Structure formats: structure tokens, C-alpha cells
LON peptidase substrate-binding domain-containing protein
Amino acid sequence: MTTVRLPLFPLNSVLFPGLVLPLNIFEERYRAMMRELLKTPEDEPRRFAVVAIRDGYEVARSAPGLPDPTTTLEGGPAAGFGPDPVKAFHKVGCVADAATIRERADGTFEVLATGTTRMRLLSVEASGPFLTAELEPLPEDDGDEAGALAEGVLRSFRQYQKRLAGARERSLATGAELPDEPGVVSYLVAAAMMLDTPTKQRLLQAPDTASRLRDELKLLRSETAVLRTLPSLPAADLTRGPTSLN
């Protein structure tokens, strides 16, 4: 089994391959991570791993709060994730490639990264200035009937999208044609749907593309039925994740 160790960035959201991830970095542990990534030559990938938080806080508490205002605050790379950080995270995540890392005058960073490949979290190390993780690459097969399922998902997604946009014609990404490669379809639709983190996590860790597409087809049909009974909602930017406040 081939493994790799990368910096680890836990979030309260799920990153999928192909999804653009903007980050606003202000905590010292993640500033240290970005300074380390900047040591990588520009012509090489500046990679880190993103995992969804199962139990913990994306941003470490910076002041005492309820219920005890005198609580001693945690510090260090594992702050907010408990004594055994690996238990705080979902076990399947995504490798991200930081295409842009820009340091501001105040020492914070503006980062734009893109999800690349899935990985499985094996262990977490908290002895340095930021978390690192031992990771196992997680390849994915198409599975049975992935092509036909992708066509069905795209049809259902168009109906879902129209409901979100108030029944107006609106394309997935500023007029671009929808993709037709099953794996790309499965990840793009998973990222685009308005779903909670556990459901998105389930889609990320599906055993193959066909399984993810089958799950998405059921979700699209049920969510579209719900949207028929709701007022119009704005369409989301379907190729970008929410900006993390880190």
C-alpha cells in the first residue's frame, strides 16, 4: 500500500475532486501551513488534504464562552479537535492543490485551491505547527451502467436547477455545457446540491461512480419534489465551495 503524508486542513464542509475551494487563512496553525507550502516551487503541486469535521470546531475558540466564561482555551495544531484528532474527522477526504497562495500585509493569507483526488485518512500527527496526516490514495471505478446513470442524473439535475433558479433557464456554470464524463458528473452534482455535510460525505465516499450516481438520482428526485412546494430560491454557484473562515 502506497501512502503519503500531507498537511491536513479540516473543514465543516466536504471538498470534492474538481471543486474550487477559496480559503481565508488567519489562524496561526494554518498560516504556518501556507508558509510551508510556499516553499514548494511554483511549478510543483502545493498539496494539502481536506477532511470534513465529524466532531469539533473549524475555527479554534479565541475567547472564553458559554457555559463557562473562565474556560481555559486550547492552543496548538489540534485545538478544537479533542485529545485524539483522528476521531474528530471523517475518514475519506480530498487532496487539494493550492493554485494561488497570497500573503496579505497583516500576515493572513488568501488561498484558492482545487480538489484533485480522493484519499483515506489513516493517522493524524499533531507534533508540529500544523496537523499532518498519513493518507492512502482512494482510486475509483466507474461501476456498472455509469454512463446511462450519468445521463439520468444530468436530466434530473437540470430540473432541480430550474427549481432552485425559480423555473428560469440558467446554466450550470455561466453558460458552459454540462459535462458528460460520469465521474465528473457525479462529483459536480454532489458539490452543487444543497445537502447537509453527512449526505455529501456519503456521496464522496461512495465505492464507485455508479453507486454515487444512483444515490444522487434518488436525492435529486426527492429534493426537486420538495422544491416544488417552496418559494423560489437563488441558484448557487455550482463550481465553488463556500469560503472557509478557517
